[in-house]
Amino acid sequence: MRTIKHIGLIIFLLGLTIFSTLPFLGTYSMSSSEIDQWVEQKRIKSELFAAALQEDVADRTFEGMMELSPVIEKNLEEANATHRKNREYDKVIYTKATDMAAEIGKQAGIGFIAEKKGLMWWATFGLGILGALMFILPNVILLGAKGIKNNGIYHQNATNRGWIAWGVFFYLIAFYLILYFRPQYAVNWTYLMDPISERLSGNQAGHWFVYGFMYCTVMVVMGVRMYIKYRHNRYQMIRTTSVLFFQIVFAFLIPEIMVRLQMPYYDFKNAFPLDYDFFFQWNLRSLINSGGIGIFILVWGIALTLVIVPVMVYFFGKRWYCSWVCGCGGLAETLGDPYRQHSSKTLLSWRIERWLVHGVLVFAVGMTLITLYSFFSETGTVLGIKTSGVQNAYSLFIGAIFAGVVGTGFYPIFGNRVWCRFGCPLAAYLGIVQRFKSRFRITTNGGQCISCGNCSTYCEQGIDVRAYAQKGENIIRASCVGCGICAAVCPRGVLKLENGPEKGRINPTEVLLGNDVNLMELVNRK
Amino acid sequence: MPKETIAIIGNGISGITAARHIRKLSDKHIIVISSESEFFFSRTALMYVYMGHMKFEHTQPYEPWFWKKNRIELVQDHVEKVDHQKKKLLLKAGQPVSYDKLIIATGSRPNRFGWPGQDLKGVQGLYSKQELEQLERDAPDKETCTRAVIVGGGLIGIELAEMLRSRDIPVTFLVRESSFWNNVLPEGESQMINEHILEHHVDLRLSTNLVEILADDNGRARAVVTDKGDTIPCNLVGLTAGVSPNVDFLKNSGIALNKGVLVNRYLETNIPDVYAIGDCAEQEEAIGQRRTVEAVWYTGRMMGETVAHTLCGNRRKYNPGHWFNSAKFFDIEYQTYGWVRGEGSRPKEEGHFHWRHPQEKICITAAFHTDDRKFLGINTFGIRMRHEVVDRWLTEGKSIDHVMEHLRDANFDPEFYRTYEDQIVSAYNASFNTQIRPQKKSWRRILNYTGS
């Protein structure tokens, strides 16, 4: 069994290595006529840029994106500079230079990687999935009888912030930086996914499709790990199934199918303000111009945030969204599960959390108000603030850096819910509802608590669960996503997540069960 | 007037609970002395540190700033002597500490029954932080420790077995009783745990006693001899045959001792202004069916809370409610409420209803009075119970039939877990010729709504 695990690990690392070298490999070449065709198809009005491409790119061969990208970036910037100087604003190209390099790269790829798409898929994703499953499946036997299996978590390098964890940390950060800021280096990855993308939406794969597919793959493989690890716990089994279902069907398949049916790209579950650009001008216009389905999405999106989400939080707590439906939560609960113990439980981090997460909520709502004002009054500035500037700042700092790079990159060192805890504006909003108007609570059998600390240690949201449990106080916290792990790891059966009457939700803790004091006397004294 | 000084010896759950509640109720000067650790930690969680579930710091329920903020002075030193006439504590390293009132909360230490070889290297109990550290040194992995022998089949014994098995160290488990913990557990439950111990590849030897521990040339344990005539080679011997009060330093101090520090219901010793709580305290007269010395986390916590009230001007009797306890045997959680006796100590009038799942390691035993069918207590394995509900049944003197009918109210398992009330109650009906139908869970009953 251990041998299978080791072989699996080697196969996985092989797949990962091939995948990781792809951004640096590949041959790119376009003929003069292909460039003309592409310029026309893209309706590029800058004759300067077109001429520059003919001059510098046509009929040349570039080895690797490192050669091609600078040429395109330089020419694009020069062409734009000239147009701006000549006040030919209609000719300025607003596509970012890096995106332009990615687009041209996608057209220009030749050679092994671009042609043997299926083989390359197997050499990367295929090996990765196979190797990971070979690494994970033997645990059915190796873990022994079913039950909580956290043995060795703090002895192992990978889960105890050792060099492997730091390696994963930097790898994930690098991956997200490419994804968000240097998509041209992801071009080779998109080739592998073309066959699947074409079958789904009819289009070639972009780097976001690669990301979406990879997201689903990682969640499924690590979901298998969850199924094995928590096979004694039906709450975890069902919850894992739920996040996998919503990720694959809603977040991944439905939007692709919508595109195939000439409808707007929408997944029906990503709610504003997590879906922060829902009210951006381009999205509103696109929805309004998409006929009935567009209007339906618009109404659905607004109802989701204003009615459906809070009503569901009232009945079930924010867990129904954060740890049963949400994609960010889904990744955190599968890929992030081995790292959940790293969230900080200090009072200081709780203070930072409250300022930060509510700050982001205020930012998101403020930005949206400005956006809507601009939309309806058709101006570009509100009170002297440029709407697009605010949007770009939010997209960059919150949407890309916080949610993406930090959100996932920080898993191995700071725990798997950094984004959900410190940054997600939707979580902040649901948290307020959960705290003040909900039937959800974690009931505590305070008498049986031995203050061991397993609950606090494994709380991914950094809640000091023990502080409540040992006092017999029900846990009613805005940040609780209801993953249920505290109740799972408790050796004494102290914690239970449940939905019940609001009356009695916040319980008196004057007397911990066990000490039989005269209750009437206690009441009279007060 | 200067503030009154309360000195507390011991920073375990009892001493720290007392300190916290004294601070809640008063502005007294509080000083806690312990040589074991700088900060309070959860003793019952030490096993998880060895198993790698947590780091030692995670077993500390309060952050280091907590003590300063709450003005609880911590002294890491060992109390050598108590001079109650001068109201002074003599410390091993530091200056003597004067007090106005003293709380003794020194806990327990592992029993050693004079076995030959019990003081050899590689022989240890598992109670203190130091013993955990010693285990880490002597049994870091299965290469260094090729076999461990555990002597004593109680809660600490099985925990030590679980710890060592988590590092794949072969374990031989010597249990004096004919079945694991059957002096406490009823037969069916004890039997199920035997099976579960074997599932974890522990060499379980029932009805077996330790005769002698053999030494190698370096004075380390090399083997164990049993009363069955076996010699078992090993590198580590865990002595887990119970604990007794850690009170040796009080001999000849004038404070009355028996097994532990003798206290009355107010937790007062024979000396004015000296109190004892937790594992080290011994009740002069047993409370109900409880033992006079109760080495249990929960009772320590209750005594700590009680003595704090007494010291803050509200003299309060130690009045523990219904007995409860819990433990975990490898993967099986165990909870008990009220009294359910093992075969040896079971009174004639205590009837049992036992149900065990046909495949899973899940079972319950409910005890009742055979005359009036009053509910006396329940043990559950693999099913969690809602403390509040069971406690109320006991207080209200409900019948076993009532308990069976409302069993769903007491289920505390996580959502979506399979529930077994139907099987349990139909087995009960079959045994007692009753026609009880389990009722639906009722929040109204659970939260004890009265009126509206």
From TrEMBL, chain A:
PROSITE patterns: 4FE4S_FER_1, 4FE4S_FER_2. Residues 440-468, 471-500 form the 4Fe-4S ferredoxin-type domain. Pfam families: Fer4_10, Fer4_5. The chain crosses the membrane at residues 7-26, 119-142, 163-181, 208-228, 240-259, 293-316, 355-376, 396-414. Coiled coil: none annotated. Keywords: 4Fe-4S, Electron transport, Iron, Iron-sulfur, Membrane, Metal-binding, Transmembrane, Transmembrane helix, Transport. This is 4Fe-4S ferredoxin-type domain-containing protein. It comes from Muriicola marianensis.
Automatic annotation (TrEMBL), chain B:
It holds the Pfam family Pyr_redox_2. Residues 6-287 form the FAD/NAD(P)-binding domain. InterPro entries: FAD-bd_OxRdtase, FAD/NAD-bd_sf, FAD/NAD-binding_dom. Keywords: FAD, Flavoprotein. Its cofactor is FAD. The keyword Metal-binding does not apply. Belongs to the FAD-dependent oxidoreductase family. This is FAD/NAD(P)-binding domain-containing protein. The lineage of its organism: Bacteria, Pseudomonadati, Bacteroidota, Flavobacteriia, Flavobacteriales.
